[in-house]
Structures are given as C-alpha cells and as structure tokens.
C-alpha cells in the first residue's frame, strides 16, 4: 500500500492541496483569492517535483489500476505547467474585464481537474480512466460557466455539460461492451482478449470507446462543442481547455489504443485515420470565415488534433513519440496565442475578440504583433519555427509505418489552415490600423508571451525534446 501511495504521490499532493485550499476559500472568502491562487501554483510545482522518483518509474500501483511510468510523467509535466499558467493569467482578466468575478474557487477547480487528468494519463483500467475523466469533466463544466453574470459563459457551460454527458454515456457503453465480451476492465487483460481472435462484441466496444475519446479531444465528428465553449468561456479558462485537458485526452487515447487494444490496431487505425483527415480538413475550412479570434483558435485546435492523430495512426513507438512531441509544441503555441488574446483590450479595459481589432497591431504594439506572428507561423508549420518540426515528426512516423497516402493527404490538407493563419498576420501587418488597445502592460502576461515565442522560435530546436519524447514513448511498449 505504501508503494502504491508513493507512485500516486502527484495526485495525493494535488488532492490534499485542493481540499485544504477549499477550506481556506470557504473561510477567507473573496479576500483569499490571491493567496489561494499562488498557493495552488505552488501545489502544482510540488506535484511536478513529486514526479521524480517512484511516480515516474515505479511500475503498477493498486494491482494494475494505475501506471506510474515515464509516459504518464511526461504528460503530467505538460498538464501541470498549463494548469499553472491558466491560474497565473486569470486575475487581470477578471479584474478588468469581468466585473471582478474571480473567486478562490477558480484555482481549486483547476487543481481538482488536474487530479482527474493525472488519473486519466496513468490509468491501467477502464474504470480508473472513467473516474479520472469524470473528475476532470465536472470541474471543467463549472469553469466554463464561471462568469455567472455573463450569458455567453452560462451558455458555454450548459452546452459543454449536455454534450459532455452524452459523450460520457457513449464511452461508458463502450466500456461495458468491452467488459462484457472480455470479462475484465484491466488494460492488459483486455489486450489478451483482443489478441485471442475476432469478436463482434469487442469490435463494437472499440468503436464506442473511441467515439467517446474523440469527443474529449474534440476530433471530428465529435467536435461540435468546441467553438461555442471556447468563445463563451472566460479567456483564461479557454486557454486551459485548449491545453491541459487536450493533452490528457490525447495521452489517454494513446494508452487505450496501444496498451488495451494493441492487438486490434488494424481495426482502430481506420477510425483514427478518418478522424484525423476529417479534423484536418474541417478544422481548416470552418475557420476561414471566422471573425472571432477565439472561435478561430477553436477550429485551429480541431485542425491540430487531426495532425496529432496521424502519429497515433502509425501505432508505433516512433508514432507515439511524435504525438507527444506535437502536443508539447501545440500547447505552447496555443497558450501563447491566448496570452496575446488576453492583451487585446479596448481603451475602456474591456476584452476585444474580433480579428479586425488586430489591424495595424504591428505599428501600435510591435512586440505583441511579432509574438502573434510567431505563433501563427508555427501553427501553420512554417520553417524554421518549431511547429514545422512537430508536423514533420508525425508525417515521418506515418511514412515509417507505410501510411504514405495519409502523410501526403495530411500535408496537402495543411495548406488550408495556412490560409487563415496568414490572414491574421496580414491583418496585423498590412491592414489600416484599428483603434489601439489599452496601453497598460502586464509584466506577467508579457513575460509568458515572450517565453512561449522563444520556445517556438529556432532556439526551441536546441532543446532535446525529441529524445525526451522517445524515452516517454518507450515506457508504453
């Protein structure tokens, strides 16, 4: 039992921290918001530190229900980092643009969501996976509707809840089918059942499980919640949704595909290839006529999930490593883009979300425009920025598995999304200037934006990210 608790130390730290901070928030009220927020960031840092040791290489905890390996540890570093950024950037947004609606429950919900995401990426059993998924989702529903006096936020929370409940039902039905025809919920035993021979019931279970997972990563055709929720939720919450849960859901899908359903690769690969190409094409086409920058980034997330799925379709160690590499670069690019959106404020201090408001930004805020250009070029996969290397990694993984047509189709379809990324750059650098944004600067937002821009720049190539992702992927095989 002690060994199992040491392996689950990151979740223990986060859960204990969340419970204590919840009590502090209850007694301290609104006045405790700042202290609770920074303490929550410290708790996330503590959880990250606790990953070094048994939590990253301890093996299986609680009789195989939980995996403590380098694969999960790598994902948790990304999740905790994105969660910390989402907490740090929240106060200024709510203070200036939302009538001071930030309450100490916000960082507590982020911590509880992080506990769920940690269980998702370390799950060794379908029920562990489902419990973690529900914990993450329940916190996310509240976060989406956190601005109680804002109708868009309330609508976003309701849509997310209704569609999320539907997806959870689909996933749970798939799990019940897999359990019914395999007699187990452990990933290792499920893999044995799939390897024993063809079973129509197991095939149906596979389809339903992957349909539920597709909703969580917002892959086509289960993407319908993404644009509305991204637009309606508070911008720091949207930044959180676009980063940490996306990584957790993708890593969870990889673990299910490789560890639980590895012998059925030929069956789930067809689903993944369809979802990949559909997401790339739809995410590219649907974003072309968007006028709201948050909706554009929502379709961009759908598009990028499609590229990540190309690596998963390979079904190899190299393919898994390429997905981890892609998701690492993706969350930095996305968080950087939303950091720029957070700094889009009119002279009255209210948030501005229209793409047209970026017109002439290169003349009024040249450094902010340069950072946004870096993120847009990198999302488009333009060399020598790091986004190019991420796309190249998933294409190489697909070709290494003989999926040449998939790689070529993904490359050709990437041209569609390049158009709307370049349109944002054109608006900033060529169009006549729009009214200037609020001149007030934030050292925190500016510093985080600069750090993200440096990461996706050619300097990012100096990091041994490829070696790290290969080590993490090796733990899964």
UniProtKB/TrEMBL annotation:
At the top level of its lineage, which domain of life is listed? Bacteria
Instruction: Enumerate the Pfam families for this protein.
Output: Proton_antipo_M
Subunit-level organization: NDH-1 is composed of 14 different subunits. Subunits NuoA, H, J, K, L, M, N constitute the membrane sector of the complex.
Q: InterPro entries attached here?
A: NADH-Q_OxRdtase_suN/2, ND/Mrp_TM
Protein family: Belongs to the complex I subunit 2 family.
- For this protein, what is the EC number? 7.1.1.-
User: Under which name does UniProt file this protein?
Assistant: NADH-quinone oxidoreductase subunit N
Q: What does this protein do?
A: NDH-1 shuttles electrons from NADH, via FMN and iron-sulfur (Fe-S) centers, to quinones in the respiratory chain. The immediate electron acceptor for the enzyme in this species is believed to be ubiquinone. Couples the redox reaction to proton translocation (for every two electrons transferred, four hydrogen ions are translocated across the cytoplasmic membrane), and thus conserves the redox energy in a proton gradient.
Q: Where in the cell is it found?
A: Cell membrane; Endomembrane system; Membrane
Gene name of the encoded protein = nuoN
Membrane topology category: Multi-pass membrane protein
Kindly state which reaction or reactions the protein catalyses.
a quinone + NADH + 5 H(+)(in) = a quinol + NAD(+) + 4 H(+)(out)
What PANTHER family has UniProt attached to this entry?
A: NADH DEHYDROGENASE
Bilayer-crossing residues are: 12-29, 36-58, 70-94, 106-123, 160-182, 202-225, 237-258, 270-289, 296-317, 323-342, 367-390, 402-422, 443-463
Which keywords accompany this UniProt record? Answer: Cell membrane, Membrane, NAD, Quinone, Translocase, Transmembrane, Transmembrane helix, Transport, Ubiquinone
Positions of the NADH:quinone oxidoreductase/Mrp antiporter transmembrane domain: 123-417
């Amino acid at each position: 039992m002690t060994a199992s608790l040491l392996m689950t130390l990151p979740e223990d730290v986060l859960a204990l921290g969340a419970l204590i901070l919840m009590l502090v928030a209850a007694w301290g009220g609104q006045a405790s918001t700042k202290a609770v927020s920074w303490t929550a960031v410290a708790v996330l840092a503590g959880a990250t530190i606790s990953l070094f040791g048994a939590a990253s290489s301890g093996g299986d905890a609680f009789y195989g229900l939980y995996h403590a390996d380098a694969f999960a540890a790598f994902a948790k570093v990304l999740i905790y980092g994105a969660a910390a950024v989402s907490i740090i950037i929240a106060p200024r947004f709510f203070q200036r643009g939302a009538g001071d609606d930030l309450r100490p429950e916000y960082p507590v919900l982020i911590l509880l969501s992080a506990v769920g995401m940690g269980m998702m990426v370390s799950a060794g059993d379908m029920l562990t996976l489902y419990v973690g998924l529900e914990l993450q989702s329940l916190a996310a529903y509240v976060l989406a509707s956190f601005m109680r006096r804002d109708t868009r936020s309330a609508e976003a929370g309701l849509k997310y809840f209704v569609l999320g409940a539907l997806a959870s039902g689909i996933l749970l039905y798939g799990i019940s089918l897999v359990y019914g025809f395999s007699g187990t919920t452990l990933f290792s035993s499920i893999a044995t059942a799939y390897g024993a021979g063809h079973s129509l019931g197991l095939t149906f279970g596979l389809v339903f499980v992957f349909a539920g997972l597709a909703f969580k990563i917002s892959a086509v055709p289960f993407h319908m919640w993404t644009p509305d929720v991204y637009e309606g939720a508070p911008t720091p919450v949207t930044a959180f949704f676009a980063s940490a849960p996306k990584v957790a859901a993708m890593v969870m899908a990889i673990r299910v595909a490789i560890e639980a359903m590895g012998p059925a690769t030929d069956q789930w690969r067809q689903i993944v290839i369809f979802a990949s190409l559909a997401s790339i094409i739809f995410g590219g086409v649907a974003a072309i006529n968007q006028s709201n920058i948050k909706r554009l980034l929502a379709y961009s997330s759908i598009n990028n999930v499609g590229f990540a799925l190309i690596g998963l379709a390979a079904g190899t160690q190299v393919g898994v490593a390429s997905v981890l590499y892609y998701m690492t670069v993706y969350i930095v690019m996305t968080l950087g883009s939303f950091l720029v959106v957070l700094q889009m404020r009119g002279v009255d201090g209210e948030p501005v979300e229209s793409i047209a408001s970026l017109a002439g930004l290169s003349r009024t805020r040249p450094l902010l425009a340069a950072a946004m250009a870096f993120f847009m070029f990198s999302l488009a996969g333009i060399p020598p920025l790091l986004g190019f290397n991420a796309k190249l990694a998933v294409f190489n993984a697909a070709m290494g598995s003989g999926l040449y047509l998939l790689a070529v189709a993904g490359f050709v379809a990437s041209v569609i999304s390049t158009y709307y990324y370049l349109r944002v750059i054109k608006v900033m650098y060529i169009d006549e200037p729009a009214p200037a944004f609020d001149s007030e600067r934030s050292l925190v937002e500016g510093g985080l934006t600069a750090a993200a821009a440096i990461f996706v720049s050619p300097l990012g190539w100096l990091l041994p990210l490829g070696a790290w992702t290969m080590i993490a992927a090796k733990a899964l095989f």
